[in-house]
Write a structure and sequence with these properties.
heterodimer, A: 146 residues, alpha/beta, Beta Polymerase, domain 2, 5-stranded mixed beta sheet, two-stranded parallel sheet, 32% strand, B: 383 residues, alpha+beta, Cytochrome-c3 Hydrogenase, chain B, 5-stranded antiparallel beta sheet, 3-stranded antiparallel beta sheet, 15 helices, 10 strands, 47% helix, globular
């Protein structure tokens, strides 16, 4: 765990710890570079467990959480970033971690956040064609069926 | 002249769940690429969970998967326990591990049987399915239900077991152990099995890491990952057991991981039953409202790491529940890397070795370059 903390201190990032989890918030512009440096340093020692997208409609932001597991250190690193709801764009990390492809596809399809550089994004990846132009996981979307 | 045709495999099959389609582009028999088409049966469970109360959502998430419903509900209640700061009594933790391992055994037996059928080894399929049924019966004896168990409470479990049930479980597993030795011999020595599985669909260790594969699919490529060891939950931190890995990375290794894991699961259950603590199995009052908070819980489902990420804003409903099932990376990412240098007949075998939660193996639409389509049966294709 200390190697991961050293990395975060080196990058001048503030983090918090809870059990075996390290939580760090990073501005959206730095996400790709940070994950790239992390991946290069801990190559084959970490994998991307998932990417979670959350709609905080009251704050007018989407929060995107990258959840990365380190095999040797038994630590889960959660990298959080915020993007404005009216500009839902973020750099894709699939050229660094190819395993991110379906997670970015899922968030694009269900939450409507576009990952720049991911050519595999498409609407209808999960949702049926009848609701292809909506983002069901956004809080302002409600199903017609009561 | 080089011609290639596209063969969509799937998407509907009533026997397996999570329908999905593989578009296989072939040149003659040689597979050029495989494209995964999703979206046939997305039920919007994450959205549905947001509209239910915490306790109602427990039943919704217990129905994400029919095969591994125990571990889904367990991971969900573990998230609630983290947010609500709820202690689980020792006996309940042991019972949770017990049913989780029963589920792992019957799930692994199912995929062994399905893989045998895909290989064309009908006899082995029937024998394994015969031996799976008593394990389903054990699940019914412990939880009250053969399939969807609804066994969990936040803070405990719903039913206890007595000495008679313990003896029944031990007796059944003793017989299964004998049978499993035979099946391991078949999977290790039989020429039908070896010819179909050995060296087919190889995933290297570094690829399994890059593509974030989990569970037996990753362990078959030598990746040492098992949430029961990495981040022990329920009673797994107190139980001695071995982490099974194989280095070959082929379909055979993925099946052998599962066979060896069944032996481990049987040993785990025997240990659990011999060391079952006494005491309560659930709190006196089941909490219905939870404070504001965020929690992540992970557990080792039969197919690999299952992850729940919940955000609560207080009150009686979750604000957001993210579910990352193990088949998600295994199918979508595994399909990108496993189908290299294979022929069309290997596609179902490789796919079966992922233990996919999907239904795609029966109907096949052959599309030639002129766009003509015809539906054929996969058994015809095997011939």
């Amino acid at each position: 765990m200390s190697s991961i903390k050293d990395f975060l201190i080196e990058k001048k990032l503030e983090f918090s710890e809870k059990e075996n989890k390290i939580i760090v918030s990073i501005p959206k512009e730095r996400i790709k570079d940070t994950i790239k440096e992390l991946w290069n340093r801990f190559n084959n020692k970490m994998y991307l467990a998932t990417i979670t997208g959350i709609d905080y409609i009251e704050q007018n932001i989407f929060e995107i959480d990258y959840e990365i597991w380190f095999y040797d250190y038994k630590t889960l690193l959660i990298i959080k970033t915020d993007i404005p709801r009216d500009q839902p764009f973020l750099d894709s990390i699939i050229d660094i971690i190819p395993g991110a492809i379906p997670y970015e596809q899922e968030i694009y399809d269900l939450l409507g956040v576009e990952f720049k550089g991911n050519k595999y994004l498409r609407k209808g990846f999960f949702v049926p064609s009848s609701i292809i132009n909506v983002c069901p996981l956004r809080k302002d979307w409600q199903s017609d069926k009561k | 002249m080089k011609t290639s045709i596209e063969i969509p495999v799937g998407p509907q099959h009533p026997a397996l769940h999570e329908p999905l389609m593989l578009k296989v582009r072939v040149d003659g028999e040689h597979v050029e690429n495989v494209q995964v088409i999703t979206g046939y049966n997305h039920r919007g469970i994450e959205k549905l969970g947001e509209s239910k109360s915490f306790l109602q959502a427990m039943y919704v998430f217990g129905r994400v998967c029919g095969i591994c419903n125990i571990v889904h509900q367990l991971t969900y209640v573990q998230v609630l326990e983290k947010i609500g700061n709820i202690e689980v009594p020792p006996r309940a933790r042991y019972l949770r591990s017990l049913v989780s391992e029963l589920e792992r055994i019957h799930s692994h037996l199912l995929v062994l049987a399905v893989e045998a059928e895909i290989m064309g080894f009908q006899g082995l399929f029937m024998l394994i399915m015969r031996d799976r049924e008593p394990v389903m019966k054990l699940k019914e004896i412990v939880t009250g239900q053969r399939v969807i168990a609804d066994f969990m409470w936040p803070g405990g479990v719903k039913r206890d077991i007595d000495d008679q049930k313990i003896q029944t479980i031990k007796k059944t597993l003793d017989l299964l152990k004998v049978r499993m030795k035979k099946y391991k011999q078949v999977f290790s020595e039989d020429s039908t099995v070896l010819n179909r599985l050995k060296g087919v669909g190889i995933i290297k260790k570094n690829e399994a890491v890059q593509y974030g594969l989990v569970g037996p699919t990753a362990r078959g490529s030598g990746v040492k990952t098992d949430i029961r060891k990495d981040e022990p939950y329920a009673a797994f931190g107190e139980i001695p057991f071995n982490l099974i890995t194989y280095s070959e990375g082929d379909s055979w290794a993925r099946m052998l991981v599962r066979i060896d894991e069944i032996f481990e699961s049987i040993n785990i259950i025997e240990y659990l039953l011999d060391h079952l603590p006494t005491g309560p199995i659930a709190p006196k009052f089941i909490k219905r409202r939870y404070p504001e908070g965020e929690a992540i819980s992970r557990s080792e489902a039969p197919r690999g790491e299952l992850l729940y990420h919940m955000i609560s804003k207080g009150g009686d409903k979750p604000y957001r529940v993210k579910v990352r099932t193990p088949s998600f990376p295994n199918i979508l990412n595994g399909s990108r890397i496993a189908f290299r240098d294979v022929v069309l007949a290997d596609v179902p075998v490789i796919f079966g070795s992922f233990d996919p939660c999907i239904s795609c193996m029966e109907r096949i639409i052959v599309v030639n370059q002129n766009g003509d389509e015809r539906i054929i049966n996969i058994r015809e294709l095997r011939k």
